[in-house]
From TrEMBL:
Region (Disordered): 164-184
Pfam family, one: Retrotran_gag_2
Name of the protein this chain belongs to: Retrotransposon gag domain-containing protein
Species annotation: Nymphaea colorata
Length: 184
């Protein structure tokens, strides 16, 4: 019946609620039985301070095998950063230079000229600088593809108009889209 103890319990439960609200559902389910903020904090510390060697080895292997594949540059860079951050949280820091090298190693053939241009520089850019350069390069590649697609569409249209005018009749009697030569 001590009012100070009651206030302390309310504050403690508020802190417990705050901590629980920041947890994923999976983690929440494993710690939701803890009654006080101290118990909750100790459980979380025990759970996450002992990252297994197997998990560290898995993350290192995952980092080494990252490749862009068909994902966007933004997704690819986000994945590299996420794995590097997980390794750093386990005490295995990945240097900025290692992130840059892995990023370049994981790019596909579409980026060969980009990689070659960077490799001739006296110093490779930082990971943050590389992000900006890669995003710009991806936008440029999309523009080229759009222009090429647009140009191809215009060429097809021009060829259809040319064939239609030169043969005077665009009705091909259901024999396909290309006109057949007429004997004159």
């Amino acid at each position: 019946n001590n009012p100070e103890h009651a206030m302390w319990m309310r504050r403690d439960q508020s802190l417990v609620a705050y901590i629980l609200s920041t947890l994923s559902q999976q983690v929440f389910l494993s710690v939701s039985d803890d009654c006080t903020a101290e118990e909750l904090w100790e459980t979380l510390a025990d759970t996450f301070s002992q990252i297994s060697e197997a998990r560290i080895m898995y993350l290192k292997k995952e980092f080494q095998n990252l490749s862009k594949g068909s994902t966007s540059i933004m997704d690819y860079l986000g994945h590299i950063k996420a794995v590097a951050d997980q390794l750093a949280a386990s005490g295995n820091n990945i240097s900025d230079k290692e992130k840059v090298q892995q990023t370049l190693n994981g790019l596909g053939h579409d980026y060969h000229a980009f990689i070659t241009a960077l490799e001739v520089l006296p110093v490779l850019p930082s990971f943050n600088e590389l992000q900006g350069k890669l995003l710009q390069h991806e936008m440029n590649m999309k523009r080229v593809i759009e222009r090429t697609d647009q140009g191809n569409s215009q060429n097809v249209l021009a060829m259809n108009v040319k064939f239609g005018k030169s043969h005077g009749n665009s009705n091909h009697g259901g024999r396909g889209i290309l006109p057949t030569p007429h004997n004159q």
